[in-house]
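Hi everyone,

Forwarding the result from last night's run.
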Amino acid sequence: LSPDGKHFVNQDSTDLQRKIIIEPNGRQVTSFRIAGGYTFEGWRDSNTLLFTTPQSFRRLHSYSIADGRSRVLIDSLARVTFPEWSSDGKRISVIHPKNFGSRYELITLDASGANQRHLPLKRVHGTLNLWSPDGRYMAYRSQSRAGVHVNVLEIASRRERTLAQLRPDAQGAPLVWSVDSRSLIITQTRDSAGARRTGIRAYDVASGSSRVLADLPVTPGEIVVPLDETSMVVRQSQPWTVRVAPYSNPSGGVTVLSG
């Protein structure tokens, strides 16, 4: 789903190299073919898709729905992973494993592909780099035997700190920035007394302190993720619903999808 909710990208069931762009009402907007093995990485904005090549030396491509053109944004970088656009659409970042994964770095560059900066990361196995809304910070996760670490890197100064250490099975823990870029909201689901619980905490980037936004039981098939500092999204499978609820009233809120 595109950031503005106006487009879906779907796979053509009769042609594995063809992507179809559709609107939520089912109307097809356009379709295009990609080279074999290319991976869809996400949306740059509401009209631009990102793809990477599968070779050892990978390229990052963009495809524009508006003019149907494909552009090479990054070339000749080994294992370009986790491309992420800044909220203003002017910069992009990728995580780049080096020396067979013994070191990782964050690469930032302009939307045109110019002005590359290489920023070493303190931790290895970095995943999911996430720009703060003001473009000042980058958050990322890293996996180790000790667990999952969530670090924040200040891009201008290159200062980096670990905000949280999570359980080893929390590799997929959602990360969400507060609107003012002062806090990073982190979710972790755990087993407690034979039941599953989801905890959502807001971590202050400057001080490293945290506060609990929610700690609630979850049923099988239920997924809870933060939306911002005041509300969360709850998806239930029996019956299938998606609703937005305030942290202060987890069982309430507004149902936005059902089926």
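The first strand starts at residue 8 and ends at 11.

Cheers,
N.
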